[in-house]
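Renewal narrative, Specific Aim 1. Our central claim is that a sequence can be written position by position from structural information alone. The example that follows is taken directly from our test logs and has not been curated for this report. It begins with the structure tokens describing the chain, in the order in which they were read.
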């Protein structure tokens, strides 16, 4: 399969031009405003053909909002998105027709069975009648829904509704499928079934998947590229080479502070940090201090396991520690934690610092400077908060 170049950088340099693009989905400087907030700020991405791109971020980063914007459920304030010649701003109906979508809400059509619902959606996607039955049975089998296929959807459990929502999004292999936390609430076996189903469809069809998740394991298992989204901004994009299992890894060392003998928690943390730092000279330790334990993260896998275990055993005996755990972290995990602790390039405004807030007077608001003032919209549309109802 030929590799298609990412045109995100080209789009950034030619903001006012429409570029020929071989990518399936191109999002160009997307911005969504809510009063003084900008939940999505200047977001650009490219989704290649037959690729699974994961949008990874913590709660409140804007993952689900991005998918709702791309499905025309939420209006955009600025920017645009293009999908196979369709324009999200000018022709949202044509844009949405080329999408498959499984959102956070798992709504049930109670009077239909799972098999009937799959067949109806297949007919709406214009699948030939001869292939509707085979497609429905294949999806039911892949997602382990055969036993419940002839029961009303209202009787499904939450996990079964989640799997059915994924199956409905994959029916007909649309050009782009948007999945919002497709394995939330599933057991480990069911999660891997869903992952296998997504990977199979991407490999055997020309479908592309945009997967929004907060699960690092899910992003590593399914995606070929990972986009870090934090506070509505793209912080970093990792490609397949960065996600290689043979790449550099690190350690996550968690020490419980319960049962300390003769030392305060602060003194114990300092001594533990000195010991851990001596095992990784020249490396920066990421330290997370909570009430009952402390966690150290380091991007280095060159230390000897025997030395590490001996050092932790010595700390356990000397300080009376009750629990010490060591986990091997991947490149993606280390990058994710690193991006969370880095300050954003431009602060996200707070409602309390808005000049419209009654809690902050105009004089005090003037001292806030550019903190709450976002860049002016670049769009030339007269009403960026409303979609046109007809083709332009």
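The sequence written for that structure reads:
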């Amino acid at each position: 399969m030929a590799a298609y170049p990412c045109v995100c950088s080209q789009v950034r340099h030619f903001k006012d031009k429409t570029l020929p693009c071989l990518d399936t989905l191109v999002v160009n400087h997307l911005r969504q405003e809510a009063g003084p907030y900008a939940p999505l700020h200047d977001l650009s991405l490219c989704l290649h053909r037959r690729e699974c791109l994961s949008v990874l971020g913590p709660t409140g980063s804007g993952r689900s909002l991005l998918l709702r914007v791309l499905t025309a459920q939420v209006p955009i304030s600025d920017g645009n998105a293009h999908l196979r010649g369709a324009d999200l701003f000018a022709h949202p109906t044509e844009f949405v027709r080329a999408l498959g979508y499984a959102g956070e809400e798992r709504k049930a059509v109670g009077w239909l069975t799972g098999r009937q619902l799959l067949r109806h959606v297949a007919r709406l996607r214009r699948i030939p009648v001869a292939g509707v039955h085979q497609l429905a049975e294949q999806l039911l089998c892949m997602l382990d829904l055969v036993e419940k296929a002839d029961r009303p959807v209202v009787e499904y459990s939450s996990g079964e509704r989640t799997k059915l929502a994924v199956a409905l999004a994959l029916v007909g292999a649309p050009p782009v499928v948007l999945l919002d936390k497709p394995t939330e609430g599933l057991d480990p076996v069911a999660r891997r079934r869903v992952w296998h189903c997504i990977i199979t469809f991407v490999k055997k069809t020309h479908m592309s998947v945009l997967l929004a998740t907060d699960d690092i394991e899910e992003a590593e298992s399914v995606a070929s590229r990972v986009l870090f989204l934090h506070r509505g901004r793209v912080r970093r994009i990792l490609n397949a080479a960065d996600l290689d299992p043979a790449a550099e890894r690190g350690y996550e060392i968690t020490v419980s502070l319960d049962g300390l003998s003769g030392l305060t928690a602060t003194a114990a943390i300092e001594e533990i940090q000195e010991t851990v730092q001596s095992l990784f000279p020249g490396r920066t330790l990421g330290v997370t201090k909570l009430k009952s334990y402390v966690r150290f993260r380091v991007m280095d896998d060159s230390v000897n396991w025997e030395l590490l275990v001996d050092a932790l055993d010595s700390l356990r005996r000397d300080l009376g520690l009750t629990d010490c755990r060591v986990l091997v972290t991947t490149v993606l995990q280390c990058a994710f934690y690193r991006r969370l602790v880095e300050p954003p390039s431009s602060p996200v405004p707070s409602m309390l610092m808005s000049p419209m807030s009654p809690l902050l007077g105009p004089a005090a608001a003037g001292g806030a400077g550019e903190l709450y003032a976002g860049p002016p919209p670049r769009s030339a549309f007269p009403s960026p908060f409303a979609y046109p109802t007809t083709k332009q």
